[in-house]
Specification:
Blueprint: H1 15-36, H2 47-57, H3 67-84, H4 91-104, H5 107-129, H6 133-216, H7 220-249
Helix pairs in contact: 1-2, 1-4, 2-3, 3-4, 3-5, 4-5, 4-6, 5-6, 6-7
């Protein structure tokens, strides 16, 4: 099912994330401990209460891997725990789990989890808080709304930053591709120009050489002038070829004028 799919895989998580989630879990458990002692001296929590509390908050360690299953586990175990001991309340764990769902899951999933938690509070509070339950309802509803709103804001900002990074990477790839295409086009143009220049000069040199051979018997001086023209044409061809080869050897970022 979609809700049971991991948001991220445990093998890909860095150690610092595990350490942070363990610290958050310990903090949630510590914030829930004072509730166990609200019954006074006649209500001293036993080992079973601490075990149940640990079972409730322990899944927070993997809250960023399975946000909705963790929220569902904490909510269900919280209802069962309160039915057994009304002082066994892990409110901080529920708020952290709801915040995680709002941050990592879709808005629809976040609102659904927030609505389920609010409905649970509205249903259970009159049975547990007595006559002044509506004061507690306003306070708890505010906490639920704060956790939900903060999670939605953080998730939206996270998605926006991820989109900006993706857009920047895409623009960088497009820029590199455009630069590569421009370099390839320039090299093709230079190769074509080199072919034209070399072919032109060779054609001129062949024509002049044949003319020099033809004139060598009747006019040696004319043949010498023609051969000097052949040499000049060869030097120009060599200079043009060296210039074009130098352009081809330049790096794409190098200024052709350097």
């Amino acid at each position: 099912m979609r809700l049971l799919r991991p948001v991220e895989y445990p093998a890909n998580r860095p150690a610092r994330r595990w350490v942070f989630d363990v610290l958050v879990t310990v903090l949630a458990a510590a914030l829930s401990l004072p509730n166990l002692y609200q019954g006074g001296a006649h209500h001293w929590p036993g080992v079973a209460a601490f075990v149940v509390l640990a079972l409730m908050v322990a899944p927070l360690v993997v809250r960023r891997i399975w946000p909705i299953p963790v929220f569902g586990w904490i909510l269900v175990t919280q209802i069962a725990a309160v039915s057994w001991d009304r002082h066994l309340v892990a409110g901080a764990a529920l708020l952290i789990a709801l915040y995680t769902v709002a941050r990592l899951q879709s808005r629809r999933d976040a609102l659904a989890c927030g609505g389920v938690l609010e409905l649970t509070v509205v249903t259970a509070l009159p049975l547990l808080a007595g006559a002044g339950w509506w004061h507690d309802l306003i306070f708890l509803s505010g906490l639920i709304a704060a956790a939900l709103g903060l999670g939605l804001y953080t998730g939206t900002r996270r998605a926006y930053l991820a989109e900006l990074r993706d857009r920047a990477d895409r623009l960088e790839r497009e820029r590199d591709q455009q630069a590569a295409l421009a370099v390839a086009a320039e090299r093709t143009r230079i190769a074509r120009e080199m072919h034209d220049i070399v072919a032109h000069h060779l054609t001129v040199m062949i024509t002049l050489s044949e003319a020099a051979i033809a004139a060598s018997a009747s006019s040696p001086e004319r043949a010498n002038d023609v051969m000097r023209s052949v040499a000049d044409t060869g030097r120009r061809a060599l200079a043009d070829t060296r210039r074009l080869l130098g352009v081809l050897r330049q790096r794409p970022s190098q200024d052709p004028g350097q």
